[in-house]
Amino acid sequence: MRTVQLAALEHTGGLVRAGLQAGGRAGSRPPNVGLRRRPAAGLVAAVWWTTVFIGLSAVASASEPTSALSFVVLKEDNGKPIRNAAVVLHPVNSKGKQGRGGFELKTDSDGKTHFEGVPYGKLRVQVLAPGFQTYGEDFDVASPQKEITVRLKRPQKQFSIYDDGQGAAKKDAPLEKKE
């Protein structure tokens, strides 16, 4: 038979470890028992402060008016929706400078996306989609709901002052060195 006696309690990192002494057979190790999980006081405090912070931010945001924005992203040439387009929202300050942070939304298969809780004020909207020109415009958010329709254009042919429109270089175009 084996007898186990409690020698001491040791508290480390939210765990209480019981120091055990084993008696009985020679050379035997004490069994790995005696660990008991205790709720850590730091975890309880963190949960409590998080709850208080969320409650206070809900009260503060209730006093500030917010808007629900809906976006529809379409192709300009045929009006079909563009799926998986990135709609990026950035706050803009009174001087017209883009603020830190922002949100990125993705459109669904109907070219639509929605975001609620946007504070009133200036907002910079950028829309990016592969195979289309990037769209950007500043909007003044001042109503509880706003729908924004964006029509994206296909990329245009690049213009060059050295090209005569037929693909041939003009006479005064810089010469290319050939090696």
Provide key terms for this protein.
13% helix, 41% strand, Immunoglobulin-like, single chain, disordered N terminus, mainly beta, 4-stranded antiparallel beta sheet, 1 helix, 10 strands, 3-stranded antiparallel beta sheet, elongated, 179 residues
Query: Roughly how many Å is the radius of gyration?
Result: 33 Å
Distance between the termini: 94 Å
Q: What is the helix/strand order?
A: EEEHEEEEEEE
Give a count of the beta strands, DSSP E runs of length 2 or more: 10
How many domains? The number is 2
CATH topology (level 3) name of the largest domain: Immunoglobulin-like
Tell me roughly what share of residues is in helical segments.
10-25%
Main structural class: mainly beta
Q: How many strands, which pairing sense, and closed or not: the largest β-sheet?
A: 4 strands, antiparallel
User: Strand percentage, roughly?
Assistant: 35-45%
- Based on Cα principal axes, name the global outline: elongated
Structural features, described:
This protein has about 180 residues and is mainly beta. The protein folds into two domains: about 1-65, no CATH class; about 65-150, Immunoglobulin-like (Sandwich), CATH 2.60.40.10. The chain contains one helix and ten strands. It has a four-stranded antiparallel sheet with strand order 6-5-8-9, with no helix packed on it. A three-stranded antiparallel sheet has the order 1-2-3, with no helix packed on it. A three-stranded mixed sheet has the order 7-4-10, with no helix packed on it. The longest helix has 23 residues, at about 40-65. The chain is elongated. The protein starts with a strand and ends in a 27-residue tail after the last strand.
